[in-house]
Design the sequence.
């Protein structure tokens, strides 16, 4: 299970909306306690693909974020990206490109009136939804 602060969720949401019609993306860092991950830093990073259906986190920004996490003593917990026109579940490409079974993959769908954010673990070509709690 992964916990996310409401303020961090709202940052992701407003960045994703500002990036429309392109997919938005970024990284999540924090701490793990047993089976529970707590997000303590959200990174809003450039989608180098500038595409409505694909994303690649710009490598330079990714590196800067990783260095910032290290400096703050946080672990990389996973990443997030938006789906401007499709539901909150990993696409075939998302599954194919997900190489870390320990990471959380958060997908924010903006396809409906209400945004939908879900978290997934992806392993051996299969995605499983993970419990996500947004905390006030
Ligand atoms: Zn996707």
Sequence:
């Amino acid at each position: 299970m992964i916990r996310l602060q409401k303020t961090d969720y709202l940052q992701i949401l407003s960045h994703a909306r500002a990036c429309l019609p392109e997919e938005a993306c970024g990284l999540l860092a924090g701490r793990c306690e047993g089976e529970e991950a707590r997000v303590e830093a959200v990174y809003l990073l450039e989608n180098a693909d500038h595409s409505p259906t694909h994303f690649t986190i710009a490598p330079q920004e990714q590196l800067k974020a990783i260095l910032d996490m290290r400096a703050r003593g946080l672990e990389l917990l996973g990443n997030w990206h938006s789906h401007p026109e499709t539901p909150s579940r990993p696409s075939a490409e998302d599954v194919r490109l997900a190489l870390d079974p320990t990471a959380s993959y958060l997908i924010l769908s903006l396809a409906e009136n209400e945004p939908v954010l879900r978290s997934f673990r992806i392993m051996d070509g299969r995605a499983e939804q993970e419990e996500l709690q947004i905390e006030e």
Notes: The pocket of zinc ion is lined by residues 81, 83, 91, 94, 107 (CB under 6 Å). The chain has a mean pLDDT of 97.
